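Continuing from the previous page...

OK, I double-checked the sequence for FkbM family methyltransferase against my notes and this is the correct one:
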Amino acid sequence: MKRAEKIQLLADEWKNLGLCQILKWTIAYRMKWKNIHLRPKGFREDVCLRVGTSDFATLMEVRESYDVSPKFPVNNIIDLGGNIGLTSAYLASKFPKAKIVTVEPEASNFEMLKVNVAPYPNIIPVNKGVFHKECYLKIINEGTANNCFRLEESEEPTPIRAISIPSLMQQYGMETIDILKMDIEGGERYLFNEQAHEWLSKVKILMIELHDRYYSGCSKLLFLCLKKYSYNIDLGDCTLIIHIDN
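Thanks. Re-ran it with the corrected sequence; updated structure tokens here:
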């Protein structure tokens, strides 16, 4: 890691955690604890992280990537690629009256997600993978970092069932989506198709991390779908925050 990157990382840690919690994390890492509880800035409750995994890096991205302050009431949020629930917990702290549906397919992440969202009764955890149709899904890169799992359709039954965005909206009583967060490691290329307008026309803010580094063309598919809409874009740390005039 270059010196400038190290300085930026330390600055992010200080901004999100403060000195005492940075020291606590450092001790946990060096002592090889299994888990640690921290209270990041902007979170109403502690979050639980797995020491020695990508969880800490994920935490450092949340506020910089998903901080929004809409001028309208936020009632419905869908978090696609919920990982261990950090973004959902942050959004629930900021929008305590919003219904938040959090979708995460990978089993070990989902167990941690349930721990982290338990203090927030407005968060509904869903152990599925988002896809453009109902089917079985499989993880194609087992053994990678916990925040980088990629999914493909499986011809054989698997523990991971797919669910579409329209099905999520119908199942959880959402006529509109005030905030749609999407970080699904390239799975977005399946969602931005000719059927996307069924749900995209009902989204007010789309917070998305694109993954052209895995699958070329993800960005192109998104912006082809957005051609029908009036929108403006803010830049998060790792995300595009797209305000759609719906």
